[in-house]
Amino acid sequence: MTMTLQLLEEKKKLQSLKQFLHQFSAPAADALIERRENGDIQCFACGHRCLVKPGRDGVCRVRFNDNGVLQVPHGYVGVLACDPIEKKPFWHVLPGSDALTFGMLGCDYHCGYCQNWVTSQMLRDPDAVGQPKRCTPEQLVDIAMKHGAPVVASSYNEPLITSEWAVDVFKVAKARGLKCAYISNGNGTPQVLDFIRPHVDAYKVDLKTFSDRNYRQLGGVLENVTSTIKMLKERGFWVEIVTLVVPNFSDDPDDLKRMAEFIASVDPLMPWHMTAFHPDYKMTDGYRQTTTDDLMKAVEYGTQAGLKYMYPGNLPGQVGEWENTRCHHCSATLIRRFSFMVRENRMTKGDGLCPDCQKPIPGIWGKSSGHGDGRVRRIA
Length: 380
Prior knowledge:
- This protein is an alpha/beta fold.
- The protein has helices spanning 3-21, 117-120, 137-147, 163-175, 190-196, 212-218, 222-234, 253-266, 292-305; strands at residues 25-27, 33-35, 41-43, 51-52, 64-66, 69-73, 76-77, 79-84, 98-103, 133-134, 151-154, 179-184, 202-206, 238-245, 272-276, 310-313, 325-326, 333-338, 341-345, 377-378.
- The chain folds into 2 domains: 17-73, no CATH class; 77-378, TIM Barrel (Alpha-Beta Barrel).
- The strands form 5 sheets. The protein has a 9-stranded mixed beta sheet.
């Protein structure tokens, strides 16, 4: 097959997928759009703030203007799993618990190392073949209750661009006493954060690099993410930050030092996870895996900046005490971990106090619930 024919076939395949996905849509929330007289609609679901003309879609490819109505993803999941909450990673949210985690399709970024590219890049990459499965919010929450999961989370693709569906799910989850969470790239806007705030307890932000040039390679803008982190804290979300340390991309010492200083300037008690990269998707040839030494350098920069809770991850058993949570007041070990498994949890009372010095520990605390074995359970 010639290159031209191959490109045409790929374009036809992507167009067919787009038409198929249009079945799984509903009108956008009024709070996330601004209509123009000529039929254009500005979308505020993510930091791109796309002006979407009739018949076109936004950068995310899943929010589209259908004759003056912005249609958005609704009523399906692309992926569904019962995960240990440590996998998100949230290490200060009900440790040892499970999170019923759903994802949809599409993303406003195009990261070359995306581990969830089969769902996130479905409308960009013809090799991405995630399939939607129809469901209702009630069905998802029933599954969470069946597994004993106290948290329902939106992940696997970018949740901001599917916030209408997430909010509908979370309304049902909150009514049944569950916590709700976003696992996000942090490319937000004031409008979307205000829209989700009543329904979202915990928010994990991927702070991918502190180089704006590198952010633009992924489809983002550094300032949008740093602004989102500040807005999340101002609105009272529980926030944890994650940085995938990619050798020769996001491991520049000066960038990591500035990143640590920025996080500390927002809140020195905000957990910072620096996680190990393994070559994936389009970033395989010429890229090496992250080493323990790479991660410990980031820990050193965080310590110098005054951060109190740092977690080098994805290398279980190789970072010593840094897998554990220790009181920033008295240094008592509060939670012992190995990978996603919590071996000891002394923060189960729910009062958020260190059992040794009785001083407050930042986070969302209480008894763990779920399978508690650190295993990922794929459901759909």
